[in-house]
Design goal:
Elements lengths: L2 H12 L6 E2 H7 L6 H11 L8 E2 L14 H10 L12 H4 L5 H6 L4 H11 L2
Parallel strand pairs: 1-2
The structure holds a DNA duplex (13 and 13 nucleotides).
Length: 124
DNA sequence: GCTATGACAAGGA
DNA sequence: CTCCTTGCCATAG
């Protein structure tokens, strides 16, 4: 298991119940911007130990296609946490977006440049 | 080390 | 809003 993989799982595990994050957001916080695709790949493999359903794409859509992790299952998980999902699998991501607080981010030992980007993009 | 692949992102049509 | 194209980058083989 690579460093990046561990980081991704760590980050996903920090996503609070009832909130969601985009793949890009997770990859950035995990230390590698634009590795969103890999995040999806990792969740596909290690999803059993992480709240994978709290990660969706930036367009606010559920994009899993795989059989075991079907979109309807993800929808079910989210609605169980009070996150509304339309019949078309659309979510108001900005409304439920996880906005990590600076103190929490420091524990992840994120590089200065990325930390700043995270705060600018996803924090208040 | 090189190519193909993908639960993505962003911008244009 | 939806569909398509490009850019991305860690893994697998």
């Amino acid at each position: 298991m690579s460093k990046f993989t561990e980081k991704v799982l760590e980050v996903v595990n920090k996503i609070p119940k009832g909130t969601v994050a985009s793949y890009g957001q997770v990859s950035l916080i995990a230390g590698i911007p634009r590795a969103a695709l890999q995040v999806g790949w990792i969740l596909h493999q290690y999803g059993e130990t992480t709240p994978w359903w709290r990660v969706i794409n930036n367009a606010g859509r559920i994009s899993t296609k795989c059989i075991e992790h079907h979109a309807s299952l993800q929808k079910k998980h989210l609605e169980a946490e009070n996150v509304k999902v339309t019949p078309k699998l659309k979510i108001d991501i900005e409304k439920y977006r996880w906005r990590p607080n600076p103190n929490e981010l420091k524990k992840l030992k994120l590089d200065e440049k990325y930390l700043e980007e995270v705060l600018n993009t996803y924090s208040l």
